[in-house]
Amino acid sequence: MPALVTAADEKTRDMIRVHTRMMRMPRLIPVFGWLAMILALPAFAASPWTEPSATLAERVADKVGAGSAITFTLRNVSSLGASEVAGVREEILKQLQARGMTVVPESRAEAEVAITLSENAAGYLWIGETRLAHSSPGVVMVRVPRNQPAVTAYSGPSVVLRKKLLWSQPDGEQILDAAPFNVVAGPGVLLLTPSRFALYVLYSGKWQDEFSLPLPASRAAPVSRDPRGRITVGRGFSVYLPGRRCSSVNQPQLRMDCVESDDPWPLGSGETLQAFYAPARNFFNGTLAGPLAGGKTVSPFFSAARVQENGTELWLLAGIDGRIRFFNGVNDTAASFGNWGSDITSVKTGCGAGWQVLATRPGGSAETDAAQAFEIVGRQAIAVSDPVDFPGPVTALWSRDNEATAVARNVKTGRYEAYSLSLDCGH
Amino acid sequence: MRRILYHWIAATSLLLTLWAHAATRSQYGGTLRVAVSAPLDSLDPAALPALSRSEAASEHVAGLIFDTLVRLDENAHPQPQLAHTWRHSDDYKRWQFWLRPGIRIHDGTPLTPALVAAAMRRHPESWRVDVLGEGIVIESDGAMPGLLADLARVRNSIVIAAGDGQLLGTGPFRVAEFQPGRRVVLQANEDYWGGRPFLDAVEIALGQSLRDQATNLQLGRVDVIEIGPDQVRHALDDRRRVAVSSPSELMGLWFPRSKATDAAGRARETRLREALWLSIDRAAIHNFLLQRQGEPAESLLPQWISGFAFSFTAGPNLKRARQARAESGWATPLTIAYEPNDALARAVAERVAVNARDAGLNVQAHALNTRGLVYDAVLFRAPLQSADPQAALMGLATALFPDDLPKVRAAAEPLDQFVFERTLNLGAAGVAGPVVPIVYLPQAFGLSARVNNWNQPRDGSWRLADSWISAPQGKTGTAGDSIGAR
Question: Distance between CA atoms of A165 and A161, rounded to whole angstroms?
Fold first, then answer.
């Protein structure tokens, strides 16, 4: 897990170190107890199907009588896979047997039990149909919540754009920005969502929230349907949200203080160019600030990427009209290339021209996405890496010196996933 | 060597910049032009036209203007809407809702608990609604375990009656112009609590025939049109953009009244309906008339909503059908009526008549506007209103079998719903069902290349607050895309 290494970060690290130390104490005390429990877990680990299988078996037993000799069939009309169905079958049989029911050939059976694993919009529905020799058929049902699919980490494979999964949200909550942030105890990830700012740290192979600070909703700024936000780490933490800016305060305990603010957002990882964000929209309104801006206003844009041109700063702005424009502090001109997605940023690598632009691919909100590295040579974009794919549209792309953070919404799971993007130019 | 590799990649991958689309992030502005066949005489969600092709479209439009207290997500789980928190008593007879603060009605006035309570009292339910603090309380003499799903139905939207009789909502769009039967213009609600929609406006042309809609889409005059389920395959073959929902509308026969004067007569009618139920070749209707869109229906709710529809598979069974017809003693022709100008309904009605003849039944199909028509059954379309089985059953019961509403209200568990459905299911030897299900229809829409982010919910509704349209020079969709919600 790469760490942020700016000098300014050190104070923040100290702050976190203290905080971490305080948090660690109570966690260390029962460590042996926890270890014992973890070691013992496999012996007690229950299948996720145990509880619903027990309920179903109980209801079947009510219909056919505990201790009955039964025939047993099971069919699957749900989206459960073959291995899951086998697990369910095993668990149901175990639970039936636990209630004295034995599966026998039809000729010796007192009752028929037919189980159907079905499903509706809300979850799985397991249906048991029972039939006794001299009574009408019975039906029993058990609602079974769908399990969350397991989180799968991805690590990308020279000039090579590398992608590394930082964080996958366990629920559907949107990630606005994320950043690797190592603390003494181990690697960590800062996470910004519309409602909270959190630090997760990897302790002994398990992610734990070091802090999760609520961000009070703005009273003045209207809600955006496409919310954006960004984390900056300096003397403390700052987060920029539409119409709000929040800063960390460490006394008496760590918290985020938010103020209604239309302060300009930093566009890169330095402070040379900033831009004012349109709070009720999803773009920068074109008014620029910072040493390079010179009081200039440009066309509204979604995102920006800094590169070098003849030793001076040159910015690329991804306009809301789908066009790329150049801005060098004096004038802005339309690029002759385009057809990029609306999110671009840049990383400083020292290889090639020194800066590479990362651009997303255009596409719809239900499509998978990709990012690719480009160099700007003679104000032309030249692709210098193969694209790296994302499991859904990239919803945020922010730079942090020699790396970038990309957030994508996985179109299969609906979850937001944050990735670190770095460029290996083979030095 | 690495430097050579680097330049080689740089030179060769110049070609890779030829991505053929424009920006991904949603863009604000523009007017989405929609055409629907429903004539829409009113925007009031409590007065939607029942059992007609117009009902679904009316719900879609009302859903853009009005909010409900809660909504159901894709997994049919309740989520906050105007109410951010709720709590119920142990016996489910009392529910307390806390309202989201800072919401404004479309005329700019704050939404208060008193206004919400007054709006709730408009509904014909036997609820007692009172204001309590920053929210409201809903009480009933009977248990209401399924209240949340019920409240999430568009029909139960919070509608504020203004002094001039105008109906105001809090939804993502407000009404700018309404010409009944002709046109609705909606404008973005700048203060919408869920965030201002990306679109500036939505113009909806009403009462447009499907043929005119298709022509106007091809000529670039509209962005969104309806497509009959039977035309989806053809549209995809023509590489048009199509969005298709899960089966979200029930088409069936409804016998609105009994002509029998005694129990024996009613028994004969039931046997007649059973004969008709068992004679219908739903697979053929699904395969040929619907071009395999939607699903054959032998129960009130489709499998994706109930989870137990698979267990109702009885027909066709001509032997049982003939036996039931003979036992009914029915000799006179049976007349079924279908909605005029609904070509699919006509085709299905005629097919039903052909199937019925195979079972010895004399069935005649006529348009509802046929002069002097006296009919025995109506071929209806009913939107399934909710992904929650109980709420969906409640919607059907309200229109088709209102006497059974109390039973549906009590059927909170899947087994209760199954038992209820079975009692009405003549294919499963039910006792007195007034409805003969035939097919579940999906909602299908044709989209112009300008439309982005049309996320088609499974229930067929519109989520236009999240949609946006491309600038003229920008990217649009890929021809032949099918946006599914199966």
Answer: 13
Amino acid at residue number A98: A
**Average pLDDT for A344-356:** 85
Cα–Cα separations (whole angstroms), residue B463 to A10, A120, B65, B240, B476: 47, 22, 11, 21, 18
Strand partners, A390: A369
Among the partner-chain residues B14, B25, B74, the one whose CB lies closest to the CB of A343 is B25
Look up residue B18 and give its DSSP letter.
-
Contacts of B448 (CB under 8 A, 6+ apart): B217, B220, B222, B223, B224, B241, B476
Q: Which of B105, B200, B191, B95 is nearest to B138 (CA)?
A: B95
Q: Cα(A328)–Cα(A265) distance, rounded to whole angstroms?
A: 18
Mutation target for B interface from A120, A302, A337, A344: give the one with most B CBs within 10 A. Answer: A120
Angle at B38 between CA B33 and CA B41, to 5 degrees: 100
**Torsion-angle region of residue B434: left (phi > 0), alpha (psi -120 to 50) or beta?**
alpha
Task: Tell me whether residues A121 and B387 touch, CB distance under 8 A.
Answer: yes
B74 Cβ under 8 Å from any chain A Cβ? yes
Nearest CA among B316, B284, B277 for reference residue B300:
B277
Beta bridge partners of A419: A165, A406
ipTM for the assembly: 0.79
Pairing of strands B334-338, B377-383: parallel
Q: Which of B14, B190, B414 sits opposite A382 (nearest CB)?
A: B14
Strand partners, A238: A232, A247
Q: How confident is the model at residue B427 (pLDDT cuts 50, 70, 90)?
A: low
Q: What string of DSSP letters covers B373-425?
A: ---SEEEEEEE---SSHHHHHHHHHHHH-GGGHHHHHH--SHHHHHHHHHHH-
User: pLDDT tens across B431-456, in order?
Assistant: 567 899 999 999 999 999 999 988 88
pLDDT in tens, B224-250: 999 999 899 888 888 889 999 999 999
Query: Per the structure block, which two tokens stand in for A178?
Result: 């994320």
CA–CA separation, A325 and B28 (whole Å): 20
Query: pLDDT tens for residues B329-355?
Result: 888 889 999 998 889 999 999 999 999
Instruction: Give, in order, the Cα–Cα distances in Å from A292 to each of A166, A297, A317, A320.
Output: 33, 12, 14, 22
Q: Which residues of B touch A124 (CB under 8 A)?
A: 307
Q: Which of B5, B42, B33, B48 is nearest to B395 (CA)?
A: B48
pTM of the model: 0.75
Q: What's chain B's length in residues? A: 486
> Is residue A36 predicted with pLDDT exceeding 60?
no
Give the SS3 label for residue B59: helix
**How far is the C-alpha of A85 from the C-alpha of B399, rounded, in Å?**
40
Query: Looking at CA atoms only, how far is residue A92 from chain B in angstroms?
Result: 19
